[in-house]
Amino acid sequence: MTAHAQLNEQQLKATQSGYAPVNGIEVYYEVYGTGQPLILIHGGGSTIPSNWGTILPMLCSNRKVVAMELQAHGRTNDRNAPESFQQDAADIISLLNHLSIGKADFIGFSDGGCTTLEIAIHHPQLVQKMILKGSLIY
Fold it and tell me: Mean pLDDT, to the nearest integer, of 39-58?
């Protein structure tokens, strides 16, 4: 993480954070700001600070931003089952239910873009807008 990202992360404080019981694991999440919900879905091998640390302050200036660390990433534990885009999507939907968030905008980076597509395909009623960055579609 760059010094700039570390500085932004230190200055920015989550309004809510913790662990949510989601499909047999404890998913770590952070919520920032207020307004229309924006859900951030990180790429493979990433975490909240490594994927979003630099831009998070800009995103939450007028939005309610929810970032989480998916199965076996960062502060979220693993389950005794393979990780898949479908499982990640199911975990995110459960987390949004836990946080009482309905329709939202989504940004998915890399593998998170594939997970975002899974959400859009299987739960289109929850997706207002979506941005896919650096995604590979198979």
Answer: 95
